[in-house]
Amino acid sequence: MEKKLKQKPLNLVRIVLFGPESTGKTTISRHLARHYNTVWAPEYARQYLQDKWNNERKTCEKEDLLPIAIGQMKLENKLAKKADKVLICDTDLLETKVYSEEYYGGFVDENLDKAANKNSYDLYLLTYIDTPWEEDDLRDRPELRLEMFTAFESALKKHNKNYILLKGDKGTRLKKATEAIDKLIEEKENLYSFSDSLQDLDMHFSHQNTNDFGTSFDY
């Protein structure tokens, strides 16, 4: 179980969008991925719970949290291999842990709790509730947005996570986020790049093919 929730080590700048429902996390994730010409890891729970609703007309139960966490890390680890220096994550296991605590009377699966504390990210972008509430099949508690926001921020402080608050319109949020991410990129050395690894592979095969052609010609 521990292995399924473990973050695979790659030297990337890992960014997490963090906060309550309907606060613009997915929108910012997409724009940041486009800005840095990289990939973003969507929220696995969205599709998992939408399928559950469509098939069973049931919402999230606490038994769903561990499968959601496993699916999230599988998705993150898969997409990390295709990232270029920066990996944007629409959520992480700490967010799943906060939801678990808030929705199920403080309950958190032991494996989820351990992994949420162990997995590491360079920066959390905490999204404020100054965005319109958008209703769908899964979202609830619009009247408790401030309470949920407070729970998310408290979790970041409790676990000593590096974070900044994003509020205001999309342009303001993106400007603040990119400024912080740019600094992290400058500070880290030898960042993993999927595009660079592909170029190196192409050069290798190109060189190999040239040598093969030369050998045949000489013969």
| Amino-to-carboxy terminus distance | 57 Å
Q: What average pLDDT do the residues reach?
A: 88
Helix count from the secondary structure assignment: 8
Amount of helix? 40-55%
Count every beta strand, where a strand is a DSSP E run of 2 or more residues.
Answer: 5
The SSE string, one letter per element, is: EHEHHEHHEHEHH
What labels describe this entry?
five-stranded parallel beta sheet, 53% helix, 219 residues, alpha/beta
Write up this protein.
Helix 1 (25-35) crosses helix 7 (170-187) and helix 4 (93-103) crosses helix 6 (145-158). The chain has helices spanning 25-35, 44-56, 65-80, 93-103, 110-118, 145-158, 170-187, 194-218, and strands at 13-18, 40-41, 86-89, 123-127, 163-166. The longest helix is centred in the C-terminal third of the chain and has 25 residues, at 194-218. The protein is 53% helix and 10% strand. It is of the alpha/beta class and 219 residues long. The protein starts with 12 loop residues before the first strand and ends with a helix. Strands 2-3-1-4-5 form a 5-stranded parallel sheet, with helices on both faces.
What is shown here, in short?
The chain has 219 residues and is α/β, with parallel strands linked by helices.
Secondary structure: elements and pairs:
Elements: E1 13-18, H1 25-35, E2 40-41, H2 44-56, H3 65-80, E3 86-89, H4 93-103, H5 110-118, E4 123-127, H6 145-158, E5 163-166, H7 170-187, H8 194-218
Parallel strand pairs: 1-3, 1-4, 2-3, 4-5
Helix pairs in contact: 1-7, 4-5, 4-6
